[in-house]
Design a protein that fits this description.
single chain, about 120 residues, disordered N terminus
Length: about 120
């Protein structure tokens, strides 16, 4: 996992802030979701952030690292009215895979990383 350091939040753009990624969650999943243990997943128009209060993980941040190194993160994204799937290179030998299924307007299930049932906050 990658975390954001304080220099990422000083009000100035860093090179990774200016990188355009193709991470685009569907409108139905945007917002904050939490599971029964307090894990929070935040979906924005261009990112998936795990535990946004502590900036523990950003999918856009991880993808940006590859792009800054002139490597292809091999982003694959599919979505329907009830599913959202995203995968990309996490390292030279592995991929990070997100799979979300819409159960209702207020509940989703994660079957990729961060497995579980999440409720809209």
């Amino acid at each position: 996992m990658y975390s954001c350091a304080s220099e990422d939040q000083n009000g100035t753009d860093t090179p990774k802030d200016n990188i355009k990624t193709s991470i685009k969650p569907p409108a139905w999943i945007l917002g904050n979701w939490s599971d029964s243990k307090g894990m929070i997943i935040k979906f924005t128009k261009s990112d998936i952030i795990i535990d946004p209060d502590n900036n523990a993980y950003s999918a856009k941040g991880e993808v940006s690292i590859y792009m800054l190194q002139n490597e292809d993160p091999e982003i694959v994204q599919t979505q329907t009215d009830s599913t959202y799937n995203l995968s990309f290179k996490e390292s030279a030998y592995s991929k990070r895979i997100f799979k979300f299924i819409k159960i209702s307007d207020n509940q989703i299930e994660s079957k990729g990383v961060y497995k579980g049932t999440y409720n809209k906050k």
